[in-house]
Amino acid sequence: MTETPMTAPSDETRRQVLYWRLLARVFDVDEQPALETASMAVVDDLGLPPALLDPSISVDNLIQRFPELGGELRGLMEHGDAGGDPVRRAALMSKLLLNVFSTGSGSVTATRLAGWQKDAGWLREALGDEAAGGLSGTLSELEGDLVRRMRLREVLADPALASRLTPSMSLIEQLLRDKSNLSGVALANAKSLIRRYVDEVAQVLRTQVQQTSAGTLDRSVPPKRVFRNLDLERTIWKNLTNYSPEDERLYVDRLFYRHTAKRTTPARLIVVVDQSGSMVDSMVNCTILASIFAGLPKVDVHLIAYDTRALDLTPWVHDPFEVLLRTNLGGGNDGPVAMAMARPKISDPRNTVMVWISDFYEFDRSQPLFDGIEAVHRSGVRFIPVGSVNSSGQQSVNPWFRQRFKDLGTPVISGHIRKLVFELKNFLA
Hints:
The protein has helices at 11-27, 33-46, 59-65, 68-73, 86-101, 110-127, 129-148, 152-157, 159-162, 169-178, 184-209, 232-238, 280-294, 320-325, 335-342, 366-378, 399-408, 417-428, and strands at residues 216-217, 243-244, 249-250, 262-263, 267-274, 299-306, 310-312, 352-357, 382-386.
């Protein structure tokens, strides 16, 4: 008798082994020996390092040891299954997914949080912008859970540990909620982290806003007679009759300049932000965005935050860091109180835009708030209701308000903050 040679497992079988191991490790802390052995055989056959299967090794550490894997991981799944070895791709992707989704339990150190944030960054790169955007909400929840499991006050009290923290929305939310309980070194470290995050987000948003047009040319204003405004072509054309063939020279008796003065009217931008617990992303992003627009010429920005009370933050609108330190996240909603503070700021309705950021869950105050909004809109103010201005685009808006805004011709803006930037630039241009 002759032995029948064993058939090598198919690519599909090997991929299933890797993904079954991934699911087992995410949902059960105990290893499954059979799956571990089979997965190790697959990885070895692919010529990949065994460290790929070790969830305790961060992606950064893996790439430090095996630099060639860095190029493979970037954009790994951006083009789906087109091209490349599907089993190798499954092995690399399972590493990213395991490191990000297997967050364990118990307390979390600053180093652990920073490592997870870097691993999540690698996962976003591997998936590409579109797919990563769909996961943003889930990743934010995982990060928030890690932050909540940190002994944050102890970490902040230790400068060495605090320096390892990477600012994120989840971390900033916790710092803003807990700032009244911090003092001394812990408070100083918290402020430093908030400042770093504000500066990082501001840099991104500023590139999106760029330079905003300020109006049309005003030809009633004489052009400034300086060299940079000289209209050379027009000057030559208008003086051609002064050309001397004998001298072969053009004698200029009049210079012409371009008009650069623009008719501009200062635009008033009133930003009203719901600072209740469900709107943390909006509070942070819109505070920073308002400060950027406040820095543009001929734009008069006012900022109001509210929960059950309204707070005029306009004096600090140029410094989002100071604004955030003066907010108290959480509490209920009382939109009519905020509207009562905002309406007196409208002096020229047709030259005013009011941006209202909220989930619009006002309950017994829904009708009074909508009546106020409708009156503002009909007066000529450009009213822009915004359901969310976060990176994930996930949001929940009261359906009652959503329908009424649609009927009013001012549908709720939702999704990425770039949409709000686009609307504001259109108004100011």
